[in-house]
Amino acid sequence: MITLGIESSCDDTSLALIEDGVRVKASLLSSQIEVHKRFGGVVPEVASRKHLEAISPLIREILEMGGIGFEKIDQVAATTGPGLLGALLVGVAAGKAIAWQRKIPFIPVHHLEAHLGAGFLAQNRPPAYPFLGLIVSGGHSNLMIARGQRQYELLGRTADDAPGELFDKVSRKLGLGYPGGPAIQKAAAGGDPKRYPLPRPMAGRGYGFSFSGLKTAAIRVLEEEGDRLSLPDICAGLQLAVSDVLVGKVDAALTEHRLDRLVVAGGVAANAVLRDACQRLAAARGIELLIPPPSLCTDNAAMVAANGFFTAPLWKGETLFANALADWQMGDDLPRWHPGGRE
Ligand code: KG4
Ligand code: ZN
């Protein structure tokens, strides 16, 4: 069975064809990073317009890459939320149009739930439950127990900035540009992570996160140090502080909930220091760790198509009524939408 996946929730337009939910037949991505770079972050209106320009040619291209025509697609899955509303609308409208024209199922996909499946997709296997999930991206820092498809128990989230947001903001202050995570990782090479003492906010205090204090502390260091600042040392210190906080809470949750499988996902899971720390934790505890390769950590449509394949049986009724939902919560049903408004 072939699932077409569409991702357009932020600044990447991505399309993928997945076979039986576990094999990537074709995958492509058109990044808007160059466009948003000069603003230091994603501009929502610009993102929607760029998605609109990109989507039709990319649909043709993905079919060519997969060597198939429209008639071979069995179902369409599109990221329906959460994300930027205008950006989401482009992917959802394209997906529904194909589904309606071809009379095949349309599957609304939750962006974060899709991120959690990427580690399994990387191993060409269906998700296995239960597991402890950590999603760390530009917009999220969530720790949860996954008990089954669309069944999540949230343990904690960030009270303010997400870790990717912290990297992006500090990177801008350091003049390293956008996106900040990869730039900070590169600049940290050879740095001493202990040179500048940075706080570990909320460490040892429940499962909630807070990263804005860490951002303020890092910015204070660079203001105080001025010309003396060592870029590798501050970047290395920041990565280690983020990783320490995240891994500390993961460790506590694995113990409290007696879980032996850990899934780490989202753009920040591409970070080498965090990956290393997770690998060491998993080895020390003797648990299974699923972290996708960096290309499947950041936004991509392969994870969306895979998630669509596994969640398709859970959708009852006419999903063509589904519409983009910027603040869709994990595990929640979508409200039914009608031309006249919300039911
Ligand atoms: O999941 P994602 O592609 O988009 C969403 O936010 O949904 O994550 C993007 C975030 C950005 O904030 C970016 O700076 C961060 O992931 N990121 C990284 C790395 N690569 C991307 N952060 C740390 N280290 C990286 N190597
Ligand atoms: Zn994402």
Continuous helix count: 11
Count of individual beta strands: 12
User: Major β-sheet, in short?
Assistant: 5 strands, mixed
**Widest sheet: strand order?**
3-2-1-4-5
Note the beta-strand portion: 15-25%
Describe the global form.
Answer: globular
Class based on secondary structure composition and strand pairing = alpha/beta
Features:
binds zinc ion, five-stranded mixed β-sheet, 20% strand, 11 helices, binds 5'-O-[(R)-(carboxyoxy)(hydroxy)phosphoryl]adenosine, 343 residues, alpha/beta
Short characterization:
The protein has 343 residues and is α/β, with parallel strands linked by helices. It is built from eleven helices and twelve strands.
Give a verbal description of the structure.
With 343 residues, the protein is of the alpha/beta class. It is built from 11 helices and 12 strands. The protein has helices spanning 33-37, 44-66, 85-102, 111-122, 163-174, 180-187, 212-225, 231-256, 272-285, 294-297, 301-311, and strands at residues 2-7, 12-19, 23-31, 75-81, 106-110, 131-136, 141-148, 151-157, 261-265, 288-290, 337-338, 341-342. Strands 3-2-1-4-5 form a 5-stranded mixed β-sheet, sandwiched between helices. Strands 8-7-6-9-10 form a 5-stranded mixed β-sheet, sandwiched between helices. A two-stranded antiparallel sheet has the order 11-12. It is globular, with a radius of gyration of 20 Å. The mean pLDDT is 95. The chain binds 5'-O-[(R)-(carboxyoxy)(hydroxy)phosphoryl]adenosine and zinc ion. Zinc ion (ZN) binds next to helix 4.
